[in-house]
Amino acid sequence: MLMLMTSPHILNDGNASPAVLTVIAGDGIGPEIMKPTLELMQAAGASLAIEYAEAGTASFEAGVTSGVPEETIESVARTGLVLKGPLMTPIGSGGKSANVTLRKLFETFANIRPVREMPGVPTPFAGRGIDLVIVRENVEDLYAGIEHMQTPDVAQCLKLISRLGSQRVVRTAFELARAEGRKDVAVATKANIMKMTEGMLQREFEAAAKDYPDINARHVLVDNCAHLLVRYPESFDVIVTSNMNGDILSDLTSGLVGGLGFAPSANLGNRVAIFEAVHGSAPDIAGRDIANPTALMMSAIMLLRHVGQFGSAETLEQALLCTLSDGVHTGDVPGESPVSTSAFAAAVGDRIGRRSAVASREHQPIVLPQISRPDARREPGSRVKKGVDVFVETTQEVDQLGAGLEQIATVTPYRLSMISNRGTVVWPNTGGMTECVDHFRCRFVIDDASTWTEESIYGLLKAIGAQHRWMHVEKLEEVDGVASYSRAQGER
Ligand code: ATP
């Protein structure tokens, strides 16, 4: 049953004009952490007009295959602002994650995960002064979920990184640094290996950095970043990174400051911003009044800052910091005498108006980059045809495959230049010891670019297809003098 209220329910009519938001309580522990969070926002003086909407388990059970009903989509599109509890993903039924659906549907391209040492929360890193933000690209990369079984034994996942996606996320990181008075932004990539995809993120970061001379911009390889985050976490301020790297790094960093109970997040797009705790619905503890509501409360504080209600944000943050400093905590935090969710929330409520020894950061409104697709597109000056990669499934020995394909190529304008297996050249023989699987990239090059035509490619594919199963083709070009394809390991 949908609980959408079409007429907004005014929580508190403070000085600011009310921020109209959609509240999705969510599954599992969602409702029991959402209720006190909303009450505390009100107590802190936030001015909110709430539309309640549903998503997740109840919606899946009602037959909504995406887990996000039409009414909820309409509400989010209308308000552009969401405070969301965790939504469970159905296991085994093939149902998609409603969390991901919401993020993708509204193109929330940047995932912001602040990581700050909290007083009274014992961790091996306590006292180090960790205070950083991970900005994770949120809609592209391997998580676009474009996968194919290339052969029965070889799977492929496409890693798509766009110039638009890269520009938006790196500029969001710089703008966030400015809004929070931070001075250092690091881009974490694996550009040394993936020069085109991860390299694009690095190049767009370096280009954008020129517009932010007040901020120190640096590149760090993501594996080294993980290492440095464990050794010197206090040396980082803002880290911007691609979707998968960000997924891993941000879980690592939340572990540094006390775990899932203390990990808030925002998903920012140009039209919609969704605020939520990083943790899931925790069905194992749902309904027992023992969940830690801190991460959702911190997400609510981020939401208040996002809509410019800085006073109530700081009031709630200070009350939360006082509560934790006083040693009040739920059972997920190591220490004596844990309290229930409701007792923790009551303790925060009692401290509204008090100031903790830990200061809140000064915040300015964040200015999100408004970059549209045509802005990001670069029309190349030249494209020179170089050939075609044809991916072939075979269990033939590579010498036999090479000889056969060379023969096939003689009736086309193409010449077989190399064959690689999982990225390593195996023909012509290099003396390597590659154990070939049944998936070969066969590179055909052309000496006279004018003979590279759609028809000549079809002819080549037809001739190959008569002898082998091919499943994937890539055109090879030089764009503005730079090869738009990678060389294989060992390719000359
Ligand atoms: P989902 O399927 O929705 O992702 P999950 O249980 O697989 O749920 P999480 O909810 O992220 O994944 O929880 C992982 C573990 O952390 C669980 O054992 C849960 O009890 C604990 N946990 C998560 N969030 C909290 C919280 N806010 N307070 C206390 N414990 C939590």
Query: In total, how many beta strands?
Result: 19
Q: State the shape.
A: elongated
Largest sheet: 11 strands, mixed
Tell me the span between the first and last alpha carbons.
64 Å
CATH architect. name of the largest domain:
3-Layer(aba) Sandwich
What order do the strands of the largest sheet run in, or round the barrel if closed? 1-3-2-4-13-12-5-6-11-9-10
Q: Give me the secondary-structure category.
A: alpha/beta
Q: Provide the residue-averaged pLDDT.
A: 93
Strand content: 15-25%
How many separate structural domains?
2
From the 3D structure, determine the CATH topology of the largest domain.
Answer: Isopropylmalate Dehydrogenase
Number of helices: 14
According to CATH, what is the class of the largest domain? Alpha Beta
Low-confidence stretches: 1-7
CATH superfamily of the largest domain: Isopropylmalate Dehydrogenase
Q: Which ligands occur here?
A: adenosine-5'-triphosphate
Helical residue percent band:
25-40%
The value of Rg in angstroms is: 26 Å
If you had to describe this structure to a student in words, what would you say it looks like?
The structure is a single chain. This protein has 492 residues and is of the alpha/beta class. The chain has two domains: 9-350, Isopropylmalate Dehydrogenase; 383-483, Alpha-Beta Plaits. It has 14 helices and 19 strands. The chain has helices at residues 30-43, 57-61, 70-79, 98-105, 163-179, 197-209, 222-231, 243-256, 294-306, 310-325, 341-350, 373-376, 398-409, 454-465; strands at residues 9-10, 19-24, 48-53, 81-84, 110-116, 131-137, 147-151, 154-157, 184-189, 216-221, 238-241, 264-268, 273-277, 383-393, 414-421, 424-427, 439-446, 469-479, 482-483. The chain has an eleven-stranded mixed beta sheet with strand order 1-3-2-4-13-12-5-6-11-9-10, sandwiched between helices. The chain has a six-stranded antiparallel beta sheet with strand order 16-15-17-14-18-19, with helices on one face. Strand 2, helix 1 (30-43) and strand 3 form a beta-alpha-beta unit. The longest helix is centred in the middle third of the chain and has 17 residues, at 163-179. The chain is elongated. The protein starts with 8 loop residues before the first strand and ends in a 9-residue tail after the last strand. The structure holds adenosine-5'-triphosphate (ATP). Adenosine-5'-triphosphate binds next to loops.
